[in-house]
């Protein structure tokens, strides 16, 4: 009987071949792929089915009406405090950004990703110093499993790109939406400051609103969604994230060893605490692990705006806020710069391990 040897898996070669197409996951789908390439496949022991739906558990991620802030600010602050301590996530409605702007922003993500393939390749790069960065998986070569998504990124503050440096397909709405999110960020950081027992201006004065990174995600329909993920388990290496998701869903948060759905709410934005806010709050607010499922339905679009100066050179030092410390609550993290923290997190990739552990005292 003749023995058939399994062909050695050339993972590095497969990654390189995929990257060199400059067509991303959408290019695979457009080619008619029915079996997802091995680079996207999760380890066999990993299951995507360990899901507890929010309405079947004790974890009902709060939806907070910001319109009521003017009626009773204390109640709003209390709700944000509770959500930030227990879940690390909440949704906001009546946040001041018109629904039409939200819908047009999602359309802008779709327009760019569904441009002519050759025209889109012009923007494909792994050089994060570019004003507009489009690629598939920024951590493609450093993570064990590739995510089923394509992404474009721009740093919209403090030094935004010139309009002509952005693709026409998403330019106007990206600029308008980012302006709205910056305004919402100042409002949220005021409420979060008060939720920490500080003056409302404190987090903004510390520089938490200085930077904004805009990330547009495109998750094509997946022929084998049970074998991969749209985004593997991770926490966000920012102070705060404002997420716009479409109505397909798939976002989950990990609480008490369960994956909890965060269902889309029309007109709502998902807000989550980032690592840097957990660090400066000395663990009072929680940056919680989350992921995105792949789906047979699609494409799914989302826009994540991260409040952080990211990889920009900076000498500003961040550590646990002194007023929050005491003899019974000593600092749990060493001081760091945003650049150092994000560089460490970026180089590590989405490997399911929080970068915060590296900065623990």
Automatic annotation (TrEMBL):
Residues 208-310 form the Fe2OG dioxygenase domain. GO terms for molecular function: 2-oxoglutarate-dependent dioxygenase activity; L-ascorbic acid binding; metal ion binding. This is Fe2OG dioxygenase domain-containing protein. Belongs to the iron/ascorbate-dependent oxidoreductase family. Gene3D superfamilies: B-lactam Antibiotic, Isopenicillin N Synthase, Chain. Keywords: Iron, Metal-binding, Oxidoreductase, Vitamin C. It holds the Pfam family DIOX_N. GO terms for biological process: coumarin biosynthetic process; response to molecule of fungal origin.
């Amino acid at each position: 009987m003749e023995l058939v040897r399994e062909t050695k898996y050339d993972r590095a070669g497969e990654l390189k071949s995929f990257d060199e197409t400059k067509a991303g996951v959408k290019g695979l789908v457009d080619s008619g792929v029915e079996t997802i390439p091995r680079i996207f496949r999760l380890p066999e022991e990993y299951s995507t089915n360990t899901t507890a739906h929010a309405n079947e558990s004790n974890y009902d991620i709060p939806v907070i009406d910001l319109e009521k802030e003017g009626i009773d600010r204390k109640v709003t602050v209390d709700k944000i405090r509770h959500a930030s301590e227990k879940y690390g996530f909440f949704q906001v409605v009546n946040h001041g950004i018109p629904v039409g702007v939200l819908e047009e922003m999602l359309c802008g993500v779709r327009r760019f990703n569904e441009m002519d393939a050759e025209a889109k390749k012009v923007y494909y790069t792994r050089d994060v110093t570019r004003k507009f960065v489009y690629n598939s998986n920024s951590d493609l070569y450093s993570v064990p499993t590739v995510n089923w998504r394509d992404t474009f990124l721009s740093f919209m503050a403090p030094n935004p790109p010139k309009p002509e440096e952005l693709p026409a397909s998403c330019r106007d709405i990206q600029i308008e939406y980012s302006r709205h999110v910056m305004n919402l960020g100042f409002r949220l950081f005021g409420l979060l400051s008060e939720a920490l027992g500080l003056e409302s201006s404190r987090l903004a004065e510390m520089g938490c609103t200085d930077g904004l990174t805009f990330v547009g995600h495109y998750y094509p329909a997946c022929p084998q969604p049970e074998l991969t993920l749209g985004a593997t388990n991770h926490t966000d290496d920012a102070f705060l994230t404002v997420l716009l998701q479409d109505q397909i869903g798939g976002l989950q948060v990990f609480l008490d060893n369960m994956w909890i759905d965060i269902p889309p709410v029309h007109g709502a934005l998902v807000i989550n605490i980032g690592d840097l806010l957990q660090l400066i709050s000395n663990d009072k607010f929680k940056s919680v692990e989350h992921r995105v499922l792949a789906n047979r339905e699609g494409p799914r679009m989302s826009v994540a705006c991260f409040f952080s100066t990211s990889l920009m050179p900076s000498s500003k030092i961040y550590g646990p806020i002194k007023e929050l410390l005491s003899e019974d609550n000593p600092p749990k993290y060493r001081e760091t710069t945003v650049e150092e923290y994000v560089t460490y997190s970026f180089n590590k990739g989405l490997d399911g391990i929080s970068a915060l552990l590296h900065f623990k005292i």
